[in-house]
Write a structure and sequence with these properties.
single chain, four-stranded parallel β-sheet, alpha/beta, 275 residues, Alpha-Beta Plaits, 2 domains
Length: 275
């Protein structure tokens, strides 16, 4: 089993109201002994749609070892509950930008000859949870730009949100078939050509190898490499020694994933030059 985001229910805080149940069409939560309980890791997608419906604040998301989420097993459970539950689940995946899971779900109901009309995606303000962790593909492709000095295009090359390593789920749809740029978080401030020279055409993950938990990052990278086709990884860091800490973590994660992912380093001087 690998680490991933999954809900955790505080049984002491849970008052048994059951308001979370209708908001978990995947069937991961059931009422047992007057308490809401997570019955299967396989059914929990870790997106936290149930959180905003708990009046006691008894549900949160944690990162721990868990069985991989299985969309086809979820759909097998969901289709038994009727069209409204199927629709709620499909809308849930669509609203959270889960393109790959949505495709698997649609393929499943197509195989079963089930037709369901989906609503348009909900507005951003209806997302339950921290807006800063809402998965978004900004839809930016290749752009004409400069060559490593100040951005001549004057436009951001950021293609997705979030960007912080801890906040990016390993199943975020923008990760698959991407060239990954991992950047120590001082690099964009020091290097004027960051957007055009380094970020252009890549998916960004940022973190601090000195202040953050590098071992946790290694686990996250391992999940990302296992669950996605990553075409390449570039690690951009400052010249100071403490900034090299993610080099080994990324290389170990590539090895642990069993995938052959090309890796290269870019070093930026304190003066803002590419070395």
């Amino acid at each position: 089993m690998a680490k991933r985001k999954i809900i955790k229910i505080d049984e002491i805080k849970c008052n048994g109201c059951g308001l979370c149940i209708p908001n978990c069409p995947e069937g991961a939560i059931q009422m047992i002994d007057n308490k809401a309980r997570l019955i299967s890791d396989l059914f929990c997608d870790g997106l936290g749609a149930c959180i905003g419906h708990c009046p006691e604040g008894a549900i949160k998301i944690e990162e721990r070892e868990a069985e991989p989420y299985d969309e086809r097993k979820v759909m097998k459970n969901i289709v038994k509950q009727g069209e409204n539950v199927i629709k709620a689940h499909l809308d849930h995946l669509k609203d959270h930008g889960q393109g790959q899971y949505l495709k698997e779900a649609l393929d499943y109901i197509k195989e079963k000859g089930i037709k369901v009309k989906m609503d348009a995606p909900k507005e951003a303000h209806s997302f339950h949870g921290c807006p800063g962790s809402r998965v978004m593909d900004l839809g930016k492709g290749e752009k004409k730009g400069g060559s490593g000095k100040a951005s001549s295009s004057g436009e951001s090359q950021l293609r997705q949100w979030p960007v912080q390593i801890t906040l990016v789920p390993p199943f975020a749809p923008y990760l698959n078939n991407s060239d990954l740029l991992v950047a120590a978080d001082c690099v964009p401030f020091a290097y004027a050509g960051f957007h055009d020279d380094l970020l252009k055409g890549k998916t960004l993950l940022i973190g601090c190898p000195k202040l953050d938990d590098v071992e946790q990052y290694k686990d996250k990278f391992t999940q990302i490499f296992k669950q996605n086709n990553i075409k390449s990884v570039t690690y951009a860091h400052m010249e100071v020694p403490c900034c090299f800490g993610l080099v080994g973590a990324i290389q170990e994660a590539i090895a642990d994933s069993g995938h052959d992912v090309p890796f290269k380093e870019v070093t930026i001087s304190i003066g803002g030059e590419r070395m």
